[in-house]
Amino acid sequence: MQTRLISTIRVLLCCVLFWGCAGNTAPPVVDESIIQEASKGFHRFDFKKTQPVDTKDFVKKVDNFTIIFDPSASMTEAYTPSNDCTACHINYQDSGFAENHAIQNGGIEFAEPDKKQYALECNRCHHNYLYSKFKFAKELAKNFNQSIPDLDFTGTIRTFGYPVYTNFEYGIKENDNTKFLDYKKNDYARAIDKIFDADGVSPLAPTLKATEKDWYNHKGKIAVIIISDGEEMGEKEWLAAQDLKAKYEEDICIYTILIGKDPTGKKVMDKIAMSGQCGLSINGDDLLDKDKMAQFVHEIFLTKAQPDSDGDGVIDDRDDCPGTKPGLKVDKNGCWDLVLQAEVLFDFDRYTLKPEGIAALDQVVDLLKKHPFLNLHISGHTDNFGTMKYNIKLSKHRAITGLDYLMKKGIDPGRLSISWHSFSIPVATNDTPEGRVLNRRLEFKFKKRSE
């Protein structure tokens, strides 16, 4: 009896063990080539479907951008998807979801009978150790480039780690490192292709310092996009990002794209993006979705078009001088940026008005009467003939001449101010007669009156 009971228990135990194994083991893949093929197409960007972001009803948010690309040694490590992405792929609870996901993300090239087996084994596709973070990052950068809207930008690429601490890969004109190239999509893509190797340390901090200097003489808004795994980085990197933000203030935003799932790297990249105050941090896996890539690029490069009633290029809610006549040069506040030169106002070494100068000043009078909320500052300038002391007196007389004329025309003196600068602020060379003419001038700066 005891022997029979022991035999029965053994049989039941074997059944339980067999059932448990069968319930938790995925069916074997019949053809191993399915997994090999999946590794070639899994987590790859579909360049054929990627198009520049649509600009309808939108305008440029930035004028300049830099991609800072990380080819340091840690980027040679095997690419490992983020935790969220991995969890998605090993969700065997719903086989229908697993199968559909596999079909949408790399399984479409397989024969119908193979799709189910591919779906159940999709997690194995992540174990392709020949696919490095470096390769994934390059594909991402190229897809990002394809998504950039077809507008005029100045764009650069900086790398760090290899072959030198920081290096320009694209953007500087040949034999003139003070001038940048206009952004061209195909040339930019070739520059990404030419980033061949990954090695060395991760000197992102000095690269951010170099980026700070890059845009010093360039006007307009700037976007900095950092593509990196964030490894071997820390406080000095996000402090450098803070310095970059302090330098350009509201004219710069910083965006970070994390490659892989290193938790320390994620913290660093998040902090760097937060330093920019107006950018964001994202994992590269998220950008495999073409719609999310488009949203990300749209966020960086475009903003909703705002009304500009007078067509001067300054939107209405920032325009201190609405109604500016078409064709007039304006400053960043939308006010007439006016410089009147000596050949119109004064003869050489004189400060009495000529007929052409009177006509020009009458335009200023009309503008001030039309816009009573504007103040005006007049500055007088000379060329460098004669001593500084003499030219200080001459530039002061010229400024006073302009001031007196406006007051005689009924402009409230409380709205007017003057300064005189001799030849200390030239706008052209004093070595030629033509340059000296440009330096003998009056400048008029309009500004909205304080409430």
TrEMBL record:
<dbReference type="InterPro" id="IPR036737">
    <property type="entry name" value="OmpA-like_sf"/>
</dbReference>
<keyword id="KW-0732">Signal</keyword>
<keyword id="KW-0472">Membrane</keyword>
<dbReference type="InterPro" id="IPR036465">
    <property type="entry name" value="vWFA_dom_sf"/>
</dbReference>
<dbReference type="Pfam" id="PF00691">
    <property type="entry name" value="OmpA"/>
</dbReference>
<feature type="signal peptide">
    <location>
        <begin position="1"/>
        <end position="22"/>
    </location>
</feature>
<dbReference type="InterPro" id="IPR050330">
    <property type="entry name" value="Bact_OuterMem_StrucFunc"/>
</dbReference>
<dbReference type="InterPro" id="IPR028974">
    <property type="entry name" value="TSP_type-3_rpt"/>
</dbReference>
<feature type="domain" description="OmpA-like">
    <location>
        <begin position="333"/>
        <end position="450"/>
    </location>
</feature>
<dbReference type="InterPro" id="IPR006664">
    <property type="entry name" value="OMP_bac"/>
</dbReference>
<protein>
    <submittedName>
        <fullName>Outer membrane protein, related to OmpA/MotB</fullName>
    </submittedName>
</protein>
<dbReference type="GO" id="GO:0005509">
    <property type="term" value="F:calcium ion binding"/>
</dbReference>
<dbReference type="InterPro" id="IPR036280">
    <property type="entry name" value="Multihaem_cyt_sf"/>
</dbReference>
<dbReference type="GO" id="GO:0009279">
    <property type="term" value="C:cell outer membrane"/>
</dbReference>
<keyword id="KW-0998">Cell outer membrane</keyword>
<dbReference type="InterPro" id="IPR006665">
    <property type="entry name" value="OmpA-like"/>
</dbReference>
